[in-house]
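Final report, Chapter 2: Outcomes

The project's central promise was a pipeline that accepts a single protein chain and returns its three-dimensional structure in a standardized token representation, suitable for archiving and comparison. That pipeline is now operational. To close this chapter, we reproduce one record exactly as it appears in the project archive, with the input sequence first and the structure output second.
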Amino acid sequence: MDVESAASRLVSLGPTTTFRWNSEGSSGGLLVLVWSNEVVDCLFSSKNFILCKMNESNGSWKYILFVYGETQVEKRRIIWEQLEEFKNVLVIGDFNQVESGSDKLGGSTRIRGLEAFLDWRFSSNVTEVPFSGPKFTWNNKREGDDLILERLDRAYVTEKWFDHSPDGRIIHEPIVCSDHATITYHEQPSEMVSNTPYQIENWCLAFPEIKDMVQHTWNEEVSGSFMFQLSRKLDRLRCKLQYWCLEHKKVWGINWRKLTKDLRSSGMNINLIQEGEGYIRQINHLIPESQLSFSFWNQRMKANWIRCGDCPTPTMYRRVKQRQLHNTILTLRNEEDAWVEGQREVEEVILSSIKDIYNPVLLENHGEYIDFLLR
């Protein structure tokens, strides 16, 4: 579709800025959506590039170049020559070019356009950003001997960018609805550890299985004091409820987490074309099944979930995400009156503050103050 139609469909996501280059018929088209409190400017756009300048709060700036490679091999050399003009930049997107034989399964073993692409890589001295996840980011949606899988979506950084952000990583998501996979760049990847305890959601309480589970657990014999019996029964019930809710949980009628996990696991184990065929068959099986599941639950949630106040509408989803973003602590001022940012640094400030509260420096006569306060 044209980018105006695409932008209008995505306006409900509330981007702060959008940059675009319209498609030519049914091919091409670039759309960049920005969610940022910082100023982001578009310096250059064409059917193959959108160059953005991101101004950071500390006064520095970064350049990000979004790329859509030429589909015609004979025109790609011009694109690579234009890329040589950009310095201190992250180049990311669909290059439409395979870089090595290991990045392809199926089809011809010949890699067209490789020489011109490698000329750009070596002359520009760019470094490929390492990735994790399924290896192949594109497939031709065919099966059997006609199946082709390739890694076309990548990211490269120039020497200056690498000096500033050497730990950058690309995450490959599994191929789901499109013929391309989603890739995401993380400048400082870190494993986010959530210590939030699991909470039973309201929607599960309407099912008769839950009532039976509570009654059965409460009738179980437990020896010991009354408080010990209560504690044991609550612990058993919590484990049973958590297991049941996670097994039956639906997000928009589809367990996207499980679907993505299954496809990611399959996509990471592709070494032969036969394994790639199994991956595509799994995709072709799961997507129609998910569409049917969505239709089934979409009809029933209007009658049942709205009455319980738990209808998973886009409005409710946005409010939840907004609340999560609002509650996220991005920066804190430490005891030296300096601002720190980053998950680990913020955690250290909070931990240090808690230690100061619960392990205060006690004066020699603190006992007298306690006695005076109690009197």
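Archive annotation: The chain has three domains: 3-186, 203-311, 331-374.
This record, like all others produced under the grant, will remain available to the consortium after the project formally closes.
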